[in-house]
Amino acid sequence: MEKRLLAEELAGNSYPGRGIVLGKSPDGRSAVAAYFIMGRSANSRNRIFVEDGAGIRTQAFDPAKLEDPSLVIYAPVRVLGNKTIVTNGDQTDTIYELMDRQQTFEQALRTRKFEPDAPNYTPRISGIMHVENGAYNYAMSILKSNHGSPDSCQRFTYAYENPCAGEGHFIHTYIGNGDPLPSFEGEPVLVGMEDDIDAFTQMVWENLHAENKVSLFVRYIEIASGKYETRIVNKNQ
Predict the structure, then answer these.
(1) In a domain, 1, yes or no
(2) Which among 57, 175, 180, 220 has most CB atoms closer than 10 A?
(3) b/e for 37-69, b at 16 or more Cβ within 10 A?
(4) 203: phi then psi, degrees, rounded to nearest 5
(5) Which domain holds residue 93?
(6) Residue 5: pLDDT above 90?
(7) Shortest CA distance to 33 belongs to which of 235, 184, 216?
(8) pLDDT category of residue 1 using cuts at 50, 70 and 90
(9) Alpha-carbon span 11 to 202, nearest angstrom
(10) Is residue 177 included in any domain, yes or no?
(11) What pLDDT is recorded for position 9?
């Protein structure tokens, strides 16, 4: 698979929806995660990311304007021991709770399917990072409808053991704008990474569509120690 420039992947799509990037910095020192949300409706755009312990959650920027919270208010990031869970919905909690009971990432997601937002049936995208004793691996998942049919769920998991320095993978909910919105297709896209968390954060944020972008989370985890740095950017301030 050809490695692509993440900046071009983002800039070339006015509405990738929600997206997850997991990978390793070029110097090999850091496990990298990014998660962004976008919105077309006022309800989707009325959000910010806030820190919640070691994780984050979405919150209404203006609570008075919050409409249906069911698919917009959730914890995108939670930490379970040496595992960092990143998802685009409340399946974060499902993964956390079932893995805490010794089930696997895939087993946990077997209990869920795509979002019930007809006619889009938005895919549920999820990622998990495992950093322990100087070792790092990650996995990504997408649960999607069968070409828009709500009666059939397609489940794909991609696992990356000891990922190469400077490489990451990008998965998002939609391949572009539309009505209904067309679901992501194919494997997670192989993309290049950066060593500097601030440069990486700026690159992602600047290349997201100016009108549709809402919030961005970036975390760099030192593989040797497990220590991490986090950046949050919210369009609503």
Answers:
(1) no
(2) 220
(3) bbbeeebbbbbbbeeeeebbbbbbbeeeebeee
(4) -60, -45
(5) 6-234
(6) yes
(7) 216
(8) confident
(9) 13
(10) yes
(11) 97
